[in-house]
Amino acid sequence: MRKNRFYFRMAFMPLLILLVIFFLPLCFNLSRAFFTEEGFTLDLLKEVFFDRYTYRILSFTLLQASISSLVSVLVALPGSWLYANYRFRFKSFFLSLSTLCFVLPSILVVLGFVIFYGNSGFVNDLYRLITGSDGSVKFLYSFRAIIMAHAFLNIPIALNLISSAWAHYPANEEKASRMLGASALRTFTKITFPRLRGTILSAFLLIFLFCFTSFSIILVLGGGPEYTTLEVEIYRTNNIALDSARASSLSIFSFLANLIILAIYLHFSKTEESREKSNSDRAVPIKRTGIKIFLFIYNILLLVFFLGPLLSIPARSFWSTSKRYGEGFSLKSYEELFGMRSSIGMMSDALTALFNSIVIALVTGLTAVMLSLFLSLYVSKRKSRLAETFSMLPLAVSSVTLGLGYYIIKAHLHSSSLLVSYTLVILAHLVIALPFSMRTVTPVAKNINRRITDSAAMLGSADWRTCIFVEIPMLSSVLGKAFIFSFALSMGEANATLTLSEGRVITLPILLYRLINSYNYQGACAVGTLLIVSSLIVFLVSHLVTGREKDNA
Amino acid sequence: MPDLVLKNIKKKYPAFTLDVDLEVRQGEFLSIIGPSGSGKSTLLNIIAGLESPDSGKVLFADEDLTDVSVQKRGFSMVFQDYALFPSMNVEKNLSYAMKIRKMKRGEQKENVKALLDFVNLSGYEKRRIATLSGGEAQRVALARALSSQPRVLLLDEPLSALDASLRRHLRDEIRRIHDERGNLTTIYVTHDREEAFSISDRIAIIRNGRIEMIDTCENIYRQPKTLFTAYFTGDGTGLPAELFSLELDADTIFFRPEAVRVPADGLFYGDSDAYIILENTEVVSAEFLGRNYLLGLSWQGHRLLAESFSRPQSRTITVYIRKTQLLFFRDNELVT
After folding, report:
1. % pLDDT > 70, chain A
2. Are the Cβ atoms of B144 and A552 closer than 8 angstroms?
């Protein structure tokens, strides 16, 4: 390799920033567990690590994450088979719709579930209409609701990951097996499945990681101490029981557990990445009617399961159930939202919240893209596993743990400046968005043909010039995607913001959370619609970007 | 006069150690051929400055370039996979080096046009890279390599991704470019010996990181210094020397197929003293090459290759090997 320090110099700043914005709050948070007024102690840690209650929470956290991931992967498997092996209309539309779930704010899912499955929700209205009874089926505030909400968020992710990997397996191996006389079943069990195993495992582990650190779904839909996970317990201990030292000890416990899961995930996804891929598309048009019917039913069920809760949010935002303002169609929430009608409480904050969310998301998105650009180029040039793992570490820290770290830093700053609060929120969002943005940019940066940058160098181009005029243009569409990703993640982020801002920085998800808590569902739905619309705009833009990229290829 | 000199270049790899001394003359077209993994591309990268040697020096016109960066060496390279900048059109690819040299816009445009004319792609300025065929992309890559007015042109298997007829056409084009550019010093790496023979002034054979022989095409074919070179540069037969009572200290005799005479009608009209005569030779295969046949023969259990202008009529024939065309090797080295 040619010696050059350019990429290191470029990556140095991002690494330093990551160190400050990620490790500093983490250390602040975790150190709380070791230091009390009497000095250094391990007692707090011992208390948590040897408490049977901690392990009861851990085992529930593991249980719900395992079942959620298992359900998501199992439901996604038949779909992955269809999507990988057959060509049909709207396939790419469905697949890009599924990427939406990576950025769908979980608080929105919570709202959708309450409106759709709740006691006076659409499903129970339908149930009462059909059976003619006054009763209702209880979906919410149960273990089942947690699993369903996790499945809602993660089935599309599993479908997307597994089918796109499957679509790139060389079909010739299976053809060879069939020609050697193996039956379809034998070919599947001996050839296809062994290849698929790693992909399934890798998807399972990623979803497991998401579910393990899931927060708002458990907090709202779980509805009780019976269904408490580590994250919820940390939040409860800190913000409700006001015992931040114990919360920090719990954070250490949770951090260690996450680290183990992340290590396992990275290990398997690494071996997965190195597998041989074919460029040709293995999908063929569907000939058998049975498969056509199966595909149709699968897609319809998927659509109902997804669009049901999501569409019920805008529908409900036009529906008043208030005795005081009259039941039925009403524009009240929107009038309050846009300040056309004076309102009590939080609705008047909506426009501020929208503005805050957009500004915070813009800054987060732009910064995340800059940082991941520099880091990715460095990682791909130096083949630096260390820097790559380092930038993925924030995945191991739940947003609640991180938010708690920032909360402690803020307490140390003794500043009442609103600017400080905003800055801390942005930094916390940045840490959360960075691993996702890195994971979007790095594989493409690694795929840049080294010969192209070599060519530029031989034509006399300095490294900075090659970077600006050759490499960045080659990454432009993926950088756009990473921006949209980070932007959307920040728009929907509720956990860290909730933990650290104490209500001083109101974003759309925070407002949504409060409206749900005060049972103003119509208002919550209006705000939710605002979030959905902004998510949709993000989705459409990203669709346009990837579409353009395909044209160029 | 030597132009480019590699002095004691050494670079260690897990598989082999590159250990090379090489002098390239000014205006020369030198090909480097060798089996895959022999170190030929590495050698080219070291000349280019894309890799640095563990020890040794790269000199150009007596100037030590060993520590000079790629950007400042003034060499150009064409790669097998073209390595065009996909985000720019043809014109921008070609004017990239000119912009770096702060050339005026009008001049850039003229130069691009001239370069495209030169590689027979006039009017391709606005074409996007993705729309070019393999042959077109390779011409653009060539033009781009020339756009920086290089002192040395390096070509790393530039034609191996193209099909046979296009390859033939483009290799003549490359030689034309060399000649018309006032004998631009060119180093061409390939694994295809015919390609090397057809365009080079001299050829270097590289094996396991060492240069086995460097000489003109004719000498390499006719007087290969090592048995490896003999086999690598063309068809040929090696037989144990002890089969023939020869007054020479050699262990192997080697001859090309054209040293063997196969009389068409079984009758041989020549001075039999000038030939080694092998009777009862079995014809194993006859490969039709268009102008003639390449025969695979078996004589006393040894395999032979012979050239013939007609297809043999019988299974066993007598063949005659011209003694003056025999080469003798001892311990894989040519005995003179």
Report:
1. 92
2. no
A454 contacts: CB under 8 Å, gap ≥ 6: A2, B48, B50, B70, B77, B79, B83
Predicted confidence at residue A205, as pLDDT, reads 92
E strand or H helix that includes residue B10: strand B2-12
Nearest by CB to residue A458, choosing from B48, B86, B128, is: B48
User: Based on the domain organization, do B211 and B242 belong to the same domain?
Assistant: no
**pLDDT per position as a tens digit, B39-67:** 898 999 999 998 889 999 999 988 999 99
Q: Is residue B54 part of a domain?
A: yes
More confident residue, A383 or A543: A383
Q: Where are the domains of chain A?
A: 1-24+333-553, 32-311
Tokens 């690598």 correspond to what residue? B232
Q: What CA–CA distance (Å, rounded) separates B263 from B259?
A: 13
Same domain? For B214 and B242 the reply is no
Smallest CA–CA distance from A476 into chain B, residue: B87
Contact B111, B101 (CB under 8 A): no
When comparing pLDDT for A423 and A396, which is higher? A423
> What is the number of structural domains in chain B?
2
What is residue A266's predicted lDDT score, i.e. its pLDDT? 82
Q: Best of A5, A450, A458, A475 to disrupt the B interface by mutation (most B CBs within 10 Å)?
A: A458
C-alpha closest to that of A534 among A105, A42, A41, A121:
A105
Paired with B239 in beta bridges are B253
Nearest-CB residue to B83 (from A451, A462, A476): A451
Tokens standing for residue A129 = 């209409």
Say how many CB pairs under 8 Å bridge A and B: 80
Regarding whether B245 and B213 lie in a shared domain, the answer is: no
Domain that holds residue B249: 237-335
* Complex confidence, ipTM: 0.80
| Nearest CB neighbour to A458, from listed B75, B85, B87 | B75
Give the integer Cα–Cα distance in Å for B24 and B22.
Answer: 7
Domain boundary among B202, B225, B248: B225
Which bin fits A287, alpha (ψ -120 to 50), beta or left (φ > 0)? alpha
Per-residue pLDDT tens for A155-173? 998 998 899 888 888 777 8
Whether A2 sits inside 8 A of B85 (CB atoms) is: no
Contacts of A234 (CB under 8 A, 6+ apart): A247, A250, A251, A254, A398, A400, A401, A404
Chain-chain contact of B87 with A473 (C-beta, under 8 angstroms): yes
Which of B205, B225, B245 is the endpoint of a domain?
Answer: B225
Task: Identify all chain A residues contacting B73, using CB atoms and an 8 Å cutoff.
Answer: 458
Interface of A with B (CB under 8 A): 1-3, 449, 451-452, 454-462, 465, 469-470, 473-474, 476, 552-553
Q: Exposed (0-12), middle (13-18) or buried (19+): which is A503, by Cβ within 10 Å?
A: exposed
Q: Chain A interface, mutation test: which of B100, B128, B132, B146, most A Cβ atoms within 10 Å?
A: B100
Task: Enumerate the residues of chain B whose CB falls inside 8 A of the CB of residue A552.
Answer: 86, 128, 130
- Note whether B13 contacts A: Cβ–Cβ < 8 A: no
| pTM assigned to the model | 0.80
pLDDT of B228 over the 60 cut: yes
Q: Read off the pLDDT of each residue in A385-410 and give the average, rounded to a whole number.
A: 83
Residue B230 lies in a domain: no
Superfamily of the domain at A1-24+333-553:
MetI-like (1.10.3720.10)
Mean pLDDT of A496-525: 83
Do A1-24+333-553 and A32-311 share a fold? yes
- Residues B171, B215 within the same domain: yes
- Interchain pair B50, A3: CB under 8 A: no
Q: Which CATH superfamily is domain A32-311 in?
A: MetI-like (1.10.3720.10)
Residues in chain A within 8 Å Cβ distance of B70: 2, 454, 457-458
